[in-house]
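During the second half of the funding period, the structural biology subgroup turned its attention to how the target accommodates small molecules. The most pressing case was oxa(dethia)-CoA, which had performed well in the primary screen but for which no bound structure existed. We therefore specified the complex as follows and requested a full 3D prediction, including the ligand pose.
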Amino acid sequence: MIRSVVRGIGSALPPRIMKNTDFEGVVETSDEWIVQRTGIRQRHIAGSGETTASLGEAAARAALQSAGLDAGDIDLIVLATSTPNHTFPATAVEIQQRLGLRSGFAFDLQAVCSGFVYALNTADLYLRGGAARRALVIGAETFSRILDWSDRSTCVLFGDGAGALVIEAVEGKGSIADRGLLAASLRSDGCHMEKLYVDGGPSTTGTVGHLRMEGREVFKHAVGMITDVVEAVFADAGISAKDLDWFVPHQANKRIIDASAKKLGIAEKKVVTTVDLHGNTSAASVPLALSVAVADGRIRQGDLVLLEAMGGGFTWGALLLRW
Ligand code: UT7
């Protein structure tokens, strides 16, 4: 049985850091409110010339380096993003060009904050189906470009950045002991569209638009949706929370992360949290959190890792892999 095994990981963050106190005077807020309600202390904000493509390229190059591979070894690029450089062509193709790659195929995938979980699942299916051997799966965002900087209920929550994995098709035994992607559960439900959306687009307003969110409404659904897909993955893999080594959730709000871990019975010490450092970077948040926990030596080869995300649409999903 073919398994998609992680070969390398990389990330990229714009150098400019915006602290909570930097909002004071911009909108009516405080460091205390932001920390208490979200756990966020700072976020990285793209400067002029920094884009989803440039951040995605930097994360991809770091992932290739950690895998000991060249761009030429890659035959598929899937980029999860809701903030592409252009309406078309896909930013994945721009990253392909920036990497000097003229073979294989590349496309963008849009599932907002769940984008990376969707993209990893999609790339896994291509690898297991034999259509590609090695894939770059990237989550890259510049949400700072679609924020309404006068809306305190959203502008303090998001940040920019990118993370990438190199995955490779490897023959496994078909058991839970295999390295690679082991189980996934994806969901969406468009009836929640108006709770988290962007109020513009090519086919409606002809503009890019700004992010709008009914935060309390999203919060209300988040924990239940997250735990549903995680339990589906547990059932599919025949495991329970105690078998996990690490839980790497989407980084939107520390309260959602804590409540989900508690409901699932996942010990606090197994939870990777980076929302304090990065804010919500949408599709980049899971690979960024993974890269932090790999770089500091927490996640090691052979560890059982659970990923999850939930966001606009709504979309939500969970994925189990052995590192
Ligand atoms: O990644 C995609 C998924 N997105 C999420 O998971 C986000 C989910 N939602 C959340 O994380 C939370 O709902 C928020 C952090 C967005 C808000 O926290 P909350 O505890 O749900 O607060 P709230 O929306 O109920 O607002 C409480 C109060 C309101 O004032 P009133 O109406 O009680 O007088 C807001 O106007 O806090 C006010 N408020 C703020 N105050 C200071 C809203 N934003 C701010 C702010 N600073 N930045």
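Two results from this model are relevant to the next phase. DSSP finds nine helices and 13 strands in the chain. The mean pLDDT is 98.
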